[in-house]
């Protein structure tokens, strides 16, 4: 899990056909972990492609930081949709 303020981002590498890798980024709000209750999460396909799992994860983290810096409204609008599918904390 990576901290990309004000979010936590989990990167989930996925193998493509052959020897290529991509990754999915799952965002959650840091403030949701502070108080007891529900932690909402939303997933984005990063569209990165790399030769190794590690390179795909690094590229996905860079992608996530760019999204947070330039389009945080996309993340926040996605949380509105996932409120129907609650993901409780353990």
If you had to describe this structure to a student in words, what would you say it looks like?
The protein is of the alpha+beta class and 90 residues long. The protein is built from three helices and four strands, in the order βββαβαα. It has helices at 31-34, 53-70, 72-82, and strands spanning 2-4, 7-15, 21-29, 41-45. It has a four-stranded antiparallel β-sheet.
* Element order: H for helix, E for strand: EEEHEHH
**The biggest beta sheet, please?**
4 strands, antiparallel
Q: Roughly what fraction of the amino acids lie in strands?
A: 25-35%
Structural class: alpha+beta
Tell me the overall shape: elongated
Number of H/I helices: 3
Number of DSSP E strands:
4
User: In angstroms, what separates the terminal alpha carbons?
Assistant: 16 Å
Write out the strand line-up for the largest beta sheet, numbering strands in chain order.
1-2-3-4
- Averaging pLDDT over every residue, what do you get? 87
Unreliable segments of 5+ consecutive residues: 84-90
The helix fraction, in percent, is: 25-40%
